[in-house]
Write a structure and sequence with these properties.
Largest sheet: 7 strands, mixed
CATH architecture of the largest domain: 3-Layer(aba) Sandwich
Bound molecules: iron/sulfur cluster
Number of domains: 3
CATH class of the largest domain: Alpha Beta
Radius of gyration: 22 Å
Mean pLDDT: 91
Strand content: 15-25%
Distance between the termini: 37 Å
Number of strands: 15
Length: about 425
């Protein structure tokens, strides 16, 4: 949705480990969805939350088409359309917004958490949504908590919607009650089935209490304090992590839980911080790890040696490239990411093959040229690039699918590998 043109390109050296390879830093035209897209998975995760986008008809179309099948369910997202009257200053936008929120909350008493979500239009007209959320909270608290964040497409990419949403929740989290007891928080939206698997593994090794952010319901906000150690389940949560650190919580650096090895390393990082014995760790982890390794074997045969090129889109690209290289024998030629958070990706960069070109930001024309020159077996990219590349004969995988599909954890490792094997198998059948 963005077309921002500031051509400029330079390289900066990466620090530490295999990360001494230079990172290609680019800026120019980008091909990404905006942060509003995050509403699609966040509204499924927090089951009593409602997301009210304050935006244009374009924003409404984006959400509606991305949500697709959800139109028949009781919706938990909507768009308050800023129309010409509002833009011309004929109507007081704050009064209009108050009316829309009042109507919504009268009709939907099931809503306990309301997010006012900013967009490009609301930012352009400088509508102060944090202030509106504050004002409305005074009327509706304690029955409804009203927060705001920006999902606008100005200098952002679609997974930042989740980061902004979670960051807005952090100041609302209660303080931990027993500061002498260490507590673990897993941060990042995970499918419920994945969350349950992790909860069982942590319980199996005697590690607890474990909290998850976001919670499934707004009345179950996890506590936070100086005794909180947090693991990131997603690599795109820089603002949320910073907010948690401001509340005294400490980040546990780790690989991200993709694949058998990534998941093991992620769990191990927490186990080490919480002083879990090797025996207890092995007992809790071994059966699921073995299942994951068996499930990967089949796909290793199909994917080993295949060359892959990842365009910057979901911010999962670097952990994905590490998983595909180290556990399936693929060759990531380039792993692009919209933003490179060095501290959060330190372990990932160190585990990435030194032959992989890491790139940050995007100049889409230059990157397409590099991709065509490399002629990879498979390309991971956004929807806007996939069709043209398929038309040129390339095999593609939509990066947004990796966000909508449960891919974290041992029991999803095979499913994650299959997401890459399937398009290659389909292409080979077409060619027969
Ligand atoms: S927030 Fe901006 S980029 Fe996103 S749909 Fe609305 S106008 Fe388009």
């Amino acid at each position: 949705m963005n077309a921002i043109d500031h051509p400029e390109r330079d390289t900066i050296p990466a620090a530490g480990g295999c990360s001494d390879v230079p990172v290609l830093k680019e800026s120019g035209q980008r091909e990404v969805f905006c942060g509003l897209t995050g509403i699609i998975w966040m509204h499924r995760k927090i089951q009593d939350a409602f997301f009210l986008v304050v935006g244009s008809r374009t924003c409404a179309h984006l959400i509606q088409s991305a949500a697709g099948v959800m139109i028949f369910a009781e919706p938990r997202f909507a768009t308050a359309i800023i129309d010409e009257r509002d833009l011309a200053g004929l109507a007081d936008m704050n009064d209009e917004l108050d009316k829309v929120v009042t109507r919504l909350l009268e009709r939907r008493p099931d809503i306990k958490l309301l997010f006012l979500v900013g967009s490009c239009p609301s930012e352009v007209i400088k509508l102060d949504l944090p202030r509106a959320a504050n004002r409305l909270s005074k009327t509706y608290s304690p029955d409804v908590r009203i927060l705001s964040y920006s999902g606008s497409g100005i200098e952002t990419t679609f997974t930042q919607g989740e980061d902004a949403c979670l960051a807005s929740l952090v100041p609302e989290l209660p303080a931990t009650s027993d500061t002498a007891r260490q507590e673990l928080m897993v941060v990042g939206a995970l499918a419920d089935v994945v969350e349950d698997q992790f909860q069982r593994i942590f319980a199996g090794m005697g590690l607890g209490p474990v909290h998850f952010l976001p919670p499934r319901r707004s009345d179950a906000l996890p506590p936070v304090g100086p005794n909180t150690k947090f693991l990131l389940a997603q690599p795109f949560l820089a603002d949320t992590a910073r907010e948690l650190e401001e509340r005294g919580a400490k980040h546990i650096p780790a690989l991200f839980p993709l694949g058998a090895k990534g998941t093991e390393a992620w769990l191990r990082a927490a186990a080490d911080v919480f002083g879990i014995s090797d025996d207890a760790f092995e007992t809790a982890v071994a059966p699921a790890r073995e299942r994951a390794e068996i499930s990967l074997e089949r796909y290793r045969a199909q994917l080993n040696g295949k060359r892959i090129f990842l365009f910057p889109d979901s911010q999962l690209e670097i952990p994905l490239a590490r998983f595909l290289a180290n556990e399936l024998g693929m060759h990531p030629i380039e792993a692009g990411t919209p933003y490179l958070h060095r501290a959060h990706l330190e372990h990932e960069l160190a585990a990435l093959p030194s032959t992989t070109q890491v790139s940050e930001g995007q100049h889409v024309e230059n990157q397409l040229d590099r991709c065509r020159d490399a002629n990879p077996d498979i390309v991971v990219c956004g929807l806007g690039l996939a069709n043209p590349l398929e038309a040129e004969g390339m095999t593609t995988k939509w990066s947004i699918e990796l966000i909508f599909t449960p891919i974290q954890g041992f029991d999803q490792a095979g499913d994650l590998a299959e997401l890459f094997a399937r398009p290659l198998v389909r292409r080979s059948r077409l060619e027969v």
